[in-house]
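Trying the structure run again after the queue cleared.
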Amino acid sequence: MSEERKTGDWAALALSTRRRQRAHFDRGATRPLDARLDTLKSLLAALEKRENELLDALRADLGKPPVEAWLAEFQFLRSDLRLAIKKLPSWSRPRRAGHPFYFLPASSRIHREPFGTALIMAPWNYPLQLALSPAIAAIAAGNCVTIKPSELSPATSSLLSGLVAEACDPALMTVVEGEAELGAALLDQPWDIFFFTGGETVGTKVAAAAARHLAPCVLELGGKCPAVIDSTADLKLAAERIGNGKFLNAGQTCIAPDFVAVPEDRYDEFIEHLDGFMASACSSMKSDLARLPNRHHFDRVRGLATGEVKAFGEDDEDALRLALRRVRVDWDHPAMQEEVFGPLLPVLPYSDRATLVDRLSQLPSPLALYIFSGDREFSDELMVRVRSGSACINDVMKQALNHELPFGGVGSSGHGRYRGRAGFEAFGLTRPVMRRPQWKDPFFQPPPYGNLLDRLRRFLR
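Done. Tokens:
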């Protein structure tokens, strides 16, 4: 443990960490393709070595069932690493570009280059995936990386710190653990790129810090992701897929369906299918439902469940497990005034499709829009009218699990894209390079220009 960490001198720790990594980057150590591939392979080996330990840590922090933890955290990252290792040579290769004929003879290329030092601030809900996935992209692009995990997931953060220390030189990548004071100290440092996943309040502070340092910033926030059902939808399929998405991680997923809008004349039928699925899924709630991180979140989500509510199972206050609930809402209901981010599903009946689309278009843009419909024209109209970071038709969350698709928000749900190639590109810049020989230039025209303008007008039509 460093002296700064022992004494709690967070400003000194932030400064020394960034300076060490900047020096490492300036030596050119991160640039060679083989060095980046070796680091990614070391991370993969360290991840696989700790497979069971990681599942145990996620269980200790959030009560995550092993299946969810394995799929959404371990296997997700293993796939991410394998894709990066396989594709990095082609992603890194300079790309040829054209140029006007009057630049001949010449060659034009677009090179991908790293920013330098990257600060990644990760949340508690997927404490492994959302720390390492952007870090994988940053390393692939050739950066040095500092990860600040959430203090609300201490077991996973500690294990992550050991995993990274085993796989990487701390001058290349390191994990720094601490409370909010450490986060503030890190934001005071002039990192070359900032990456944050979490809520809008802290996201605003991260964006402000990046702006102070004139550095790029990627924000992955959240929002009220709507699931819109129309009269042509298969209600049983919609109920099962929406219910399953809300069940995952007890609804604590930034792309989880936040509320459902269903035609009023099909509301009862949808509720019948939803209740049937929820009752079946929640029969083993104590072992298969993740818990909330603390009492504040527990009370907040439970407080949103007012009015016509149905719960599936019993709350376990000591374990911070909140039974899944669905609640009938209108636009003024408390659950419609903020992102739920928990095991509560608001269901909103609507009578007029045009009015619904108008209301949805006025909401802050969410990370995801879900549409259940057999009407291609309606789904296309909704995607045009309702802005979102991503969209998925007749399912939920699948678009974010495809490493070949970029992931990110828009407006209040964030900005920037990562995952797969998009992540590699997010953590680097495009550098145009033109190379010309030392030959006589047939198009060279120094002053005095004479009648050059007339000749250019005739020639360059």
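The two ends are 68 Å apart (CA to CA). Worth checking whether this holds up in the mutant runs.
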